Amino acid sequence: MAKTVTKSAGKSAAKAKAKAAAKPAVKAAAKAAPKVAAKAAAKPAAQKPAPKTAKAKPAKKPALKLSMLKPSVNNMTVRVFARAAGFDAAETDAWGHTRSPEYLARNPAHLTPMIEDKGLPRGVLWESCAIMQYLANKHGLEKFYPKAPAKRAMIDSAMFYLIGTLYPYVARATYPALGFPQYAGEVGHSDAHPDKKSEAQKAAMAAIAEPLEVFHSFFRDGKPFIGGANPSIADIRLAATLEFLAVIDYPLPKWAQEYMAAIEKKLGKAYAEPAGDVRGYIAYVRSQAKASA
Ligand SMILES: N[C@@H](CCC(=O)N[C@@H](CS)C(=O)NCC(=O)O)C(=O)O
Questions:
Q1: What confidence tens digit (pLDDT) does each residue in 69-119 have?
Q2: Where does the record place the region Disordered (predicted)?
Q3: Is the distance from the beta carbon of residue 128 to the nearest atom of ligand 1 less than 6 Å?
Q4: Is the link from the previous residue into 51 a cis peptide, with omega within 30 of 0?
Q5: Half-sphere exposure of 43 (CA within 13 A, CB side)
Q6: What does each C-alpha distance from 140 to 14, 132, 137, 239, 279 come to in angstroms?
Q7: Does any ligand 1 atom lie closer than 6 A to the CB of residue 112?
Q8: Alpha helices in 140-253 (DSSP H)
Protein backbone atom coordinates (compact mmCIF):
# COMPACT_ATOMS: atom_id res chain seq x y z
CA MET A 1 0.00 0.00 0.00
CA ALA A 2 1.37 3.37 -0.98
CA LYS A 3 1.75 5.71 1.94
CA THR A 4 1.66 9.48 1.65
CA VAL A 5 2.76 11.56 4.57
CA THR A 6 1.23 15.00 4.44
CA LYS A 7 3.73 17.70 5.11
CA SER A 8 2.18 21.10 5.56
CA ALA A 9 -0.60 22.02 7.90
CA GLY A 10 -1.45 25.15 5.95
CA LYS A 11 -1.18 28.85 6.56
CA SER A 12 -3.00 29.10 9.86
CA ALA A 13 -0.73 26.58 11.54
CA ALA A 14 2.34 28.56 10.62
CA LYS A 15 0.84 31.83 11.83
CA ALA A 16 -0.09 30.37 15.18
CA LYS A 17 3.37 28.90 15.74
CA ALA A 18 4.32 31.45 18.41
CA LYS A 19 1.37 30.55 20.57
CA ALA A 20 1.51 26.89 19.78
CA ALA A 21 4.02 25.97 22.47
CA ALA A 22 1.44 26.38 25.21
CA LYS A 23 -1.47 24.85 23.27
CA PRO A 24 -2.25 21.75 21.28
CA ALA A 25 -1.10 22.53 17.73
CA VAL A 26 -4.48 21.85 16.15
CA LYS A 27 -6.25 24.32 18.42
CA ALA A 28 -3.56 26.90 17.84
CA ALA A 29 -3.81 26.42 14.10
CA ALA A 30 -7.55 26.94 14.18
CA LYS A 31 -7.38 30.19 16.19
CA ALA A 32 -7.18 33.51 14.42
CA ALA A 33 -3.54 34.51 14.27
CA PRO A 34 -4.10 38.31 14.03
CA LYS A 35 -5.51 38.26 17.57
CA VAL A 36 -2.25 36.84 18.89
CA ALA A 37 -0.23 39.60 17.25
CA ALA A 38 -2.61 42.33 18.42
CA LYS A 39 -2.43 41.12 22.03
CA ALA A 40 1.35 41.17 22.02
CA ALA A 41 1.47 44.67 20.56
CA ALA A 42 -0.95 45.99 23.20
CA LYS A 43 1.23 44.87 26.15
CA PRO A 44 3.22 47.68 27.79
CA ALA A 45 6.95 47.17 27.41
CA ALA A 46 7.50 46.75 31.17
CA GLN A 47 5.20 43.77 31.28
CA LYS A 48 6.85 42.02 28.40
CA PRO A 49 8.56 38.85 29.57
CA ALA A 50 12.34 38.86 29.44
CA PRO A 51 13.63 37.33 26.23
CA LYS A 52 14.19 33.64 26.70
CA THR A 53 17.50 32.11 25.85
CA ALA A 54 16.13 28.73 24.89
CA LYS A 55 13.74 28.76 21.92
CA ALA A 56 10.25 27.47 22.77
CA LYS A 57 9.60 24.26 20.89
CA PRO A 58 6.54 24.30 18.65
CA ALA A 59 3.91 21.85 19.90
CA LYS A 60 3.66 18.59 18.06
CA LYS A 61 0.77 18.44 15.64
CA PRO A 62 -1.65 15.66 16.52
CA ALA A 63 -1.09 12.62 14.38
CA LEU A 64 -3.85 11.28 12.21
CA LYS A 65 -3.97 7.95 10.39
CA LEU A 66 -6.21 8.16 7.36
CA SER A 67 -7.09 5.55 4.75
CA MET A 68 -8.30 7.28 1.62
CA LEU A 69 -8.94 7.22 -2.11
CA LYS A 70 -7.57 10.21 -4.02
CA PRO A 71 -10.27 10.61 -6.72
CA SER A 72 -13.12 10.67 -4.16
CA VAL A 73 -14.83 13.81 -2.85
CA ASN A 74 -15.92 11.98 0.30
CA ASN A 75 -12.22 11.55 0.95
CA MET A 76 -11.31 15.01 -0.29
CA THR A 77 -13.56 16.38 2.47
CA VAL A 78 -11.51 14.83 5.28
CA ARG A 79 -8.20 15.47 3.54
CA VAL A 80 -9.01 19.18 3.25
CA PHE A 81 -10.20 19.33 6.85
CA ALA A 82 -7.09 17.55 8.16
CA ARG A 83 -4.83 20.02 6.39
CA ALA A 84 -6.85 23.13 7.26
CA ALA A 85 -7.04 22.14 10.93
CA GLY A 86 -3.32 21.40 11.18
CA PHE A 87 -3.13 17.64 11.70
CA ASP A 88 -0.03 15.66 10.93
CA ALA A 89 -1.86 13.25 8.66
CA ALA A 90 -0.39 10.02 7.39
CA GLU A 91 -2.49 9.09 4.39
CA THR A 92 -2.65 5.51 3.18
CA ASP A 93 -3.95 5.02 -0.34
CA ALA A 94 -6.58 2.28 -0.05
CA TRP A 95 -7.13 1.89 -3.80
CA GLY A 96 -7.84 -1.78 -4.47
CA HIS A 97 -7.63 -2.71 -0.80
CA THR A 98 -11.03 -1.78 0.65
CA ARG A 99 -12.37 -5.31 0.28
CA SER A 100 -9.25 -7.12 1.42
CA PRO A 101 -9.74 -9.41 4.44
CA GLU A 102 -7.54 -7.09 6.56
CA TYR A 103 -9.53 -3.98 5.68
CA LEU A 104 -12.91 -5.73 6.06
CA ALA A 105 -11.90 -7.05 9.48
CA ARG A 106 -11.55 -3.45 10.66
CA ASN A 107 -14.23 -1.88 8.50
CA PRO A 108 -17.00 -4.24 7.33
CA ALA A 109 -18.56 -1.36 5.36
CA HIS A 110 -15.36 -1.35 3.21
CA LEU A 111 -15.49 2.45 3.03
CA THR A 112 -13.05 5.30 2.91
CA PRO A 113 -12.30 7.79 4.35
CA MET A 114 -11.45 5.89 7.53
CA ILE A 115 -9.36 7.06 10.44
CA GLU A 116 -7.64 4.95 13.07
CA ASP A 117 -7.64 6.23 16.62
CA LYS A 118 -6.99 4.28 19.82
CA GLY A 119 -9.61 6.33 21.68
CA LEU A 120 -12.44 4.95 19.53
CA PRO A 121 -14.38 1.94 20.87
CA ARG A 122 -13.61 -0.09 17.71
CA GLY A 123 -10.37 1.67 16.89
CA VAL A 124 -11.62 3.03 13.55
CA LEU A 125 -14.18 5.52 12.27
CA TRP A 126 -15.65 6.01 8.80
CA GLU A 127 -18.16 8.51 7.31
CA SER A 128 -16.57 11.82 6.36
CA CYS A 129 -18.88 14.02 8.46
CA ALA A 130 -18.60 11.81 11.56
CA ILE A 131 -14.81 11.91 11.24
CA MET A 132 -14.72 15.71 11.09
CA GLN A 133 -17.18 16.00 13.99
CA TYR A 134 -15.13 13.60 16.10
CA LEU A 135 -11.82 15.30 15.43
CA ALA A 136 -13.30 18.76 15.97
CA ASN A 137 -14.85 17.64 19.28
CA LYS A 138 -11.70 15.89 20.43
CA HIS A 139 -9.40 18.82 19.67
CA GLY A 140 -11.76 21.70 20.43
CA LEU A 141 -11.82 23.02 16.85
CA GLU A 142 -14.69 25.41 17.32
CA LYS A 143 -13.68 27.50 14.33
CA PHE A 144 -14.76 24.63 12.09
CA TYR A 145 -17.55 23.20 14.27
CA PRO A 146 -19.08 25.70 16.73
CA LYS A 147 -19.95 24.47 20.20
CA ALA A 148 -23.07 26.60 20.76
CA PRO A 149 -25.99 24.16 20.30
CA ALA A 150 -28.00 26.31 17.87
CA LYS A 151 -25.03 27.11 15.64
CA ARG A 152 -23.85 23.51 15.74
CA ALA A 153 -27.33 22.28 14.85
CA MET A 154 -27.25 24.29 11.62
CA ILE A 155 -23.91 22.74 10.63
CA ASP A 156 -25.27 19.27 11.44
CA SER A 157 -28.47 19.91 9.52
CA ALA A 158 -26.54 21.09 6.44
CA MET A 159 -24.31 17.99 6.54
CA PHE A 160 -27.16 15.50 7.06
CA TYR A 161 -29.13 17.19 4.28
CA LEU A 162 -26.11 16.88 2.03
CA ILE A 163 -25.46 13.21 2.78
CA GLY A 164 -29.15 12.23 2.75
CA THR A 165 -30.50 14.32 -0.12
CA LEU A 166 -27.95 16.14 -2.30
CA TYR A 167 -25.19 13.53 -2.43
CA PRO A 168 -27.36 10.66 -3.76
CA TYR A 169 -28.36 12.88 -6.70
CA VAL A 170 -24.75 13.90 -7.30
CA ALA A 171 -23.60 10.27 -7.18
CA ARG A 172 -26.35 9.09 -9.53
CA ALA A 173 -25.60 11.91 -11.97
CA THR A 174 -21.79 11.70 -11.95
CA TYR A 175 -20.68 8.14 -11.07
CA PRO A 176 -21.44 6.75 -14.56
CA ALA A 177 -19.16 9.42 -16.09
CA LEU A 178 -16.54 8.93 -13.36
CA GLY A 179 -16.52 5.18 -13.92
CA PHE A 180 -17.37 4.56 -10.25
CA PRO A 181 -19.60 1.67 -9.24
CA GLN A 182 -23.07 2.78 -8.19
CA TYR A 183 -24.30 2.18 -4.67
CA ALA A 184 -26.21 -1.09 -4.45
CA GLY A 185 -29.92 -0.76 -5.17
CA GLU A 186 -29.50 2.04 -7.72
CA VAL A 187 -30.80 1.62 -11.28
CA GLY A 188 -27.21 2.12 -12.41
CA HIS A 189 -26.14 -0.86 -10.30
CA SER A 190 -28.77 -3.16 -11.80
CA ASP A 191 -28.85 -4.90 -15.18
CA ALA A 192 -31.56 -2.51 -16.41
CA HIS A 193 -31.49 -1.46 -20.05
CA PRO A 194 -28.89 1.27 -20.75
CA ASP A 195 -31.74 3.64 -21.69
CA LYS A 196 -33.24 3.25 -18.22
CA LYS A 197 -29.86 3.92 -16.64
CA SER A 198 -29.40 7.01 -18.75
CA GLU A 199 -32.92 8.22 -17.82
CA ALA A 200 -32.12 7.79 -14.12
CA GLN A 201 -28.87 9.69 -14.56
CA LYS A 202 -30.59 12.59 -16.31
CA ALA A 203 -33.36 12.72 -13.69
CA ALA A 204 -30.74 12.91 -10.93
CA MET A 205 -28.94 15.72 -12.72
CA ALA A 206 -32.18 17.67 -12.99
CA ALA A 207 -32.91 17.07 -9.30
CA ILE A 208 -29.66 18.66 -8.07
CA ALA A 209 -30.77 22.29 -8.52
CA GLU A 210 -33.38 22.34 -5.77
CA PRO A 211 -31.33 21.08 -2.79
CA LEU A 212 -28.34 23.04 -4.04
CA GLU A 213 -30.32 26.27 -3.85
CA VAL A 214 -31.33 25.40 -0.26
CA PHE A 215 -27.67 25.58 0.79
CA HIS A 216 -27.51 29.07 -0.67
CA SER A 217 -30.81 30.58 0.40
CA PHE A 218 -31.30 28.84 3.74
CA PHE A 219 -27.99 27.67 5.16
CA ARG A 220 -25.79 30.53 3.95
CA ASP A 221 -28.54 33.08 4.32
CA GLY A 222 -26.44 35.97 3.03
CA LYS A 223 -23.26 34.93 4.87
CA PRO A 224 -20.08 34.02 2.97
CA PHE A 225 -20.19 30.48 4.35
CA ILE A 226 -22.60 28.18 6.17
CA GLY A 227 -20.24 28.64 9.11
CA GLY A 228 -20.44 32.45 8.86
CA ALA A 229 -17.25 34.36 8.07
CA ASN A 230 -15.15 31.17 7.93
CA PRO A 231 -15.70 27.80 6.28
CA SER A 232 -17.12 25.19 8.67
CA ILE A 233 -16.98 21.44 8.27
CA ALA A 234 -20.33 21.67 6.42
CA ASP A 235 -18.77 24.10 3.93
CA ILE A 236 -15.81 21.80 3.33
CA ARG A 237 -18.26 18.94 2.76
CA LEU A 238 -20.38 20.97 0.31
CA ALA A 239 -17.53 22.47 -1.72
CA ALA A 240 -15.85 19.07 -2.10
CA THR A 241 -19.13 17.50 -3.24
CA LEU A 242 -19.62 20.13 -5.93
CA GLU A 243 -16.18 19.32 -7.40
CA PHE A 244 -17.62 16.15 -8.97
CA LEU A 245 -20.14 18.10 -11.06
CA ALA A 246 -17.38 19.22 -13.43
CA VAL A 247 -17.32 15.73 -14.94
CA ILE A 248 -20.82 16.21 -16.38
CA ASP A 249 -20.35 19.92 -17.21
CA TYR A 250 -23.08 20.73 -14.72
CA PRO A 251 -23.91 24.43 -15.03
CA LEU A 252 -23.24 25.59 -11.48
CA PRO A 253 -25.09 28.77 -10.56
CA LYS A 254 -22.91 31.88 -10.21
CA TRP A 255 -23.22 31.91 -6.41
CA ALA A 256 -21.87 28.34 -6.23
CA GLN A 257 -18.90 29.17 -8.44
CA GLU A 258 -18.07 32.18 -6.28
CA TYR A 259 -18.61 30.17 -3.09
CA MET A 260 -16.20 27.44 -4.18
CA ALA A 261 -13.60 30.02 -5.19
CA ALA A 262 -14.01 31.75 -1.80
CA ILE A 263 -13.43 28.49 0.10
CA GLU A 264 -10.36 27.71 -1.95
CA LYS A 265 -9.04 31.21 -1.32
CA LYS A 266 -9.64 30.96 2.44
CA LEU A 267 -8.15 27.50 2.85
CA GLY A 268 -5.39 27.83 0.26
CA LYS A 269 -3.17 24.79 -0.16
CA ALA A 270 -5.21 22.85 2.36
CA TYR A 271 -8.04 22.86 -0.19
CA ALA A 272 -6.11 23.03 -3.45
CA GLU A 273 -3.93 19.96 -2.87
CA PRO A 274 -6.69 17.37 -2.29
CA ALA A 275 -8.91 19.13 -4.87
CA GLY A 276 -6.06 18.70 -7.35
CA ASP A 277 -6.32 14.92 -7.01
CA VAL A 278 -10.07 14.98 -7.73
CA ARG A 279 -9.65 17.43 -10.61
CA GLY A 280 -6.78 15.39 -12.01
CA TYR A 281 -8.92 12.27 -11.99
CA ILE A 282 -11.79 14.10 -13.71
CA ALA A 283 -9.41 15.41 -16.39
CA TYR A 284 -8.15 11.86 -16.87
CA VAL A 285 -11.60 10.26 -17.32
CA ARG A 286 -12.64 13.07 -19.64
CA SER A 287 -9.56 12.57 -21.81
CA GLN A 288 -10.28 8.82 -21.92
CA ALA A 289 -13.87 9.46 -22.94
CA LYS A 290 -12.73 11.84 -25.68
CA ALA A 291 -10.19 9.36 -26.99
CA SER A 292 -12.77 6.60 -27.26
CA ALA A 293 -15.47 8.83 -28.82
N1 LIG B 1 -21.10 8.69 3.13
C2 LIG B 1 -19.74 8.22 3.06
C3 LIG B 1 -19.46 7.69 1.68
C4 LIG B 1 -18.13 6.96 1.61
C5 LIG B 1 -17.91 6.28 0.26
O6 LIG B 1 -18.83 6.07 -0.54
N7 LIG B 1 -16.64 5.91 0.03
C8 LIG B 1 -16.28 5.25 -1.22
C9 LIG B 1 -15.38 6.15 -2.06
S10 LIG B 1 -16.26 7.53 -2.66
C11 LIG B 1 -15.44 4.01 -0.92
O12 LIG B 1 -14.58 4.05 -0.06
N13 LIG B 1 -15.65 2.92 -1.67
C14 LIG B 1 -14.83 1.75 -1.58
C15 LIG B 1 -15.64 0.49 -1.47
O16 LIG B 1 -16.88 0.54 -1.33
O17 LIG B 1 -15.03 -0.58 -1.47
C18 LIG B 1 -18.79 9.35 3.49
O19 LIG B 1 -19.17 10.52 3.39
O20 LIG B 1 -17.68 9.08 3.96
A1: 999 999 999 999 999 999 999 999 999 999 999 999 999 999 999 999 999
A2: 1-63
A3: yes
A4: no
A5: 10
A6: 18, 11, 5, 23, 31
A7: yes
A8: 149-161, 167-178, 194-207, 209-214, 233-243
* Under 8 Å between Cβ of 159 and 237: yes
For the question of whether the overall pTM of this predicted structure is more than 0.90, the answer is: no
Ramachandran quadrant class, 62 (left: phi over 0; alpha: psi -120 to 50; beta: rest):
beta
Q: How many residues does the chain have?
A: 293
Atom of ligand 1 nearest to the CA of 183: 6
Cβ-based neighbour number of residue 4 at 10 Å: 14
Give me the domains of the chain, ranges plus CATH numbers.
149-292 (1.20.1050.10)
Binding site membership of 69 for ligand 1 (Cβ less than 6 Å) = yes
Q: 55 by DSSP, 3-state: which?
A: coil
Number of H helices and E strands in the chain, helices first, is: 14, 5
